[in-house]
């Protein structure tokens, strides 16, 4: 009787009853759980079945070396801070955009400060729950005092770091997933109505060169709905003044006005788009370009939103909006509030369809658009109801065309000749 598996000259490498090679070996005992760690496989790192015992042994040797490197004693005592500095932060920095890393870097430091001195393997459910509670508690009560959306982001980054620790085999499981995640909550972004927008632009003195630039920026953002860093990245080569089109194919990543990078992509894959421009916007852009040309700007590769050849900074745009909002006596909004203002303008003034709005905003799907702007269509229902009134020509029959055998009491009632008059009475 043939054996189910045969040994080879390599310890831990065998041949099964069909002549196929595989490895099967114990890697040791987990120092935390006390369980034996066993590994078995029939393919190499590239997913190719072993053609010989030598190949199976080569893969087994590689796995053992990698396992012992990760699971040596020093790694069992690794602190969360060591893990973050040596493993997670370097890894994370290579996986995301530079701008994203700059935004999240502060969050990573906050988490590291919280758990830094603790052994990675000693973080408990209680530690995680206390952290969650602290994130959601106001400063007056000894908490972080963060908004729910920011607390959700911080807690999510913490959970992701432990996911990576599991992937690297520093941990058997992610302890933070035994604690409920923090919901993002509904972020409310302030925006300007058409009337508020008109009040704001009425405060701008465009004879002044810098205020003229402010007017152009506020107008273009409001009338196109482009993202802030899509607007700051605009070159005149992106504007077709004859065909009345704006090409949105870039985003600007910048630390300072002199240290920046113009990426040839937008926030999402569907963000690359071409936007139709109205005649008012075209005329405003033509006048602005002529004015830029008088000081040596306005060439094809020059920034549209610039007074000195350098791009505008988001914080500068934010301060500009606050200044004019105060003068106009309207609520302050963030730079991204102009994008929401554009959506509100199209929905409330023109009852634009969700599909058209989705394409104009550069969303990956209409569902994303509805998620952010569905509440803005509430007024459109009243407009539709008003338009429906009188649209149907109501003319009923002068006598019955049916043989009715129902309740005779109903038959004896006088029929209503004009149902619309009853409704009015």
TrEMBL record:
CDD domains: INT_ICEBs1_C_like. GO terms for biological process: DNA integration; DNA recombination. Keywords: DNA integration, DNA recombination, DNA-binding. The keyword DNA-binding applies. Pfam families: Phage_int_SAM_3, Phage_integrase. GO terms for molecular function: DNA binding. Coiled coil: none annotated. It comes from the Bacteria. SUPFAM superfamilies: DNA breaking-rejoining enzymes (SSF56349). The keyword Nucleotidyltransferase does not apply. InterPro entries: DNA_brk_join_enz, Integrase-like_cat_sf, Integrase_catalytic, Integrase_recombinase_N, Integrase_SAM-like_N, Tyrosine_recombinase_XerCD. Residues 187-389 form the Tyr recombinase domain. PROSITE patterns: TYR_RECOMBINASE. Belongs to the 'phage' integrase family. PANTHER family: PHAGE INTEGRASE-RELATED (PTHR30349), PROPHAGE INTEGRASE INTD-RELATED (PTHR30349:SF64). This is Integrase. It comes from Bacillus pumilus (strain SAFR-032).
């Amino acid at each position: 009787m043939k054996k189910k598996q045969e040994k080879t000259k390599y310890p831990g490498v065998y041949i099964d009853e069909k002549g196929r090679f595989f490895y099967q070996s114990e890697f040791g005992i987990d120092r935390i759980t006390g369980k034996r760690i066993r590994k078995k496989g029939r393919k190499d790192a590239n997913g190719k079945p072993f053609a010989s015992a030598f190949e199976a042994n080569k893969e087994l040797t590689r796995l053992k070396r990698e396992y012992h490197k990760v699971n040596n004693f020093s790694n069992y005592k690794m602190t969360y801070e060591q893990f973050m500095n040596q493993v997670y932060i370097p890894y994370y920095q290579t996986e995301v955009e530079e701008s994203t890393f700059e935004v999240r870097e502060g969050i990573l430091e906050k988490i590291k400060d919280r758990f830094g001195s603790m052994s990675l393997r000693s973080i408990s459910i209680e530690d995680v729950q206390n952290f969650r509670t602290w994130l959601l508690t106001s400063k007056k009560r000894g908490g972080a005092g963060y908004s729910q959306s920011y607390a959700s982001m911080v807690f999510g980054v913490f959970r992701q770091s432990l996911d990576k620790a599991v992937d690297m085999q520093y941990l058997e499981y992610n302890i933070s997933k035994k604690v409920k995640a923090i919901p993002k909550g509904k972020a409310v972004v302030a925006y300007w109505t058409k009337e508020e927008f008109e009040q704001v632009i009425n405060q701008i003195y465009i004879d002044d060169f810098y205020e003229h630039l402010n007017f152009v920026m506020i107008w273009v953002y409001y009338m196109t709905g482009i993202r802030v860093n899509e607007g700051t990245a605009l070159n005149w080569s992106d504007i077709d003044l004859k065909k009345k089109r704006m090409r949105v194919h870039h985003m600007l990543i910048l630390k300072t006005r002199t240290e920046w990078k113009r990426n040839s992509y937008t926030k999402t894959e569907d963000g690359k788009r071409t936007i139709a421009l109205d005649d008012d916007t075209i005329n405003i852009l033509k006048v602005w370009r002529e004015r830029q040309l008088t000081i040596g700007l306005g060439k094809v590769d020059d920034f549209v939103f610039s007074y000195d050849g350098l791009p505008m900074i988001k914080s500068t745009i934010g301060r500009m909006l606050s200044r004019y909002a105060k003068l106009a006596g309207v609520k302050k909004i963030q730079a991204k509030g102009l994008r929401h203002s554009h959506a509100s303008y199209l929905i409330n003034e023109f009852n634009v369809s969700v599909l058209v709005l989705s394409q104009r905003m550069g969303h990956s799907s209409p569902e994303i658009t509805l998620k952010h702007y569905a509440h803005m269509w509430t007024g459109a229902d009243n407009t539709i109801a008003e338009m429906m009134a009188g649209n149907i020509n109501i003319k009923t029959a002068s006598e019955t065309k049916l043989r009715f055998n129902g309740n005779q009491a109903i038959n004896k009632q006088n029929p209503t000749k004009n149902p619309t008059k009853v409704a009015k009475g």
